[in-house]
Amino acid sequence: MVQIILVLIVAYLLGSIPSGLIIGKVFYKTDIREHGSGNLGGTNTFRTLGVKAGLAVTVADILKGTLAASLPVLVGLDDVNPLLAGVFAVIGHTYPVFAGFRGGKAVATSGGVLLFCAPLMFLTIFVVFFASLYITKYVSLSSMLAGICAVIYAAIDGDIPLLIAVTLLASFVIYRHRANIKRIMNKTEPKIKWL
Fold it and tell me: Looking at the 3D structure of the chain, how many domains does it have?
């Protein structure tokens, strides 16, 4: 039981590593929380610091989820589903203890969890995300569509633990984008210019 708790705490702490804050301050002398949406995720980094920084933060956030999900396997805890550790990493990313509990919107880190737990699903939603992004130019809409696609994929696959975890993650992503939904409806949501 102690091992399980420790793994979940470490997963949360991994998720809490504020990639956007670190990259912004170390390489650009900028706190991205003071710019754009104030969000620590990849999208605000793209808008605030550019494509290179945005890609670096997105990749780092994905890897946080992948590493956290792999923890139960790495330490030999067969009775802990990697998805559970992944969910704790997503909570850490969204409410990071290292950044005043002001984090990102859970998209990249959720993707990282799926990269470890369901790589074919990850590939599918990756394609859906970029297809939507190419057509609409909305990162927020593309993120939510990818989440919905993941739920549909899991439902068809019939893996109940995966369906539960993905439904939680997708719901969390959509909840975190509620302000974006309003802006999309009002046609005030910013569109990307790099794709």
Answer: 1
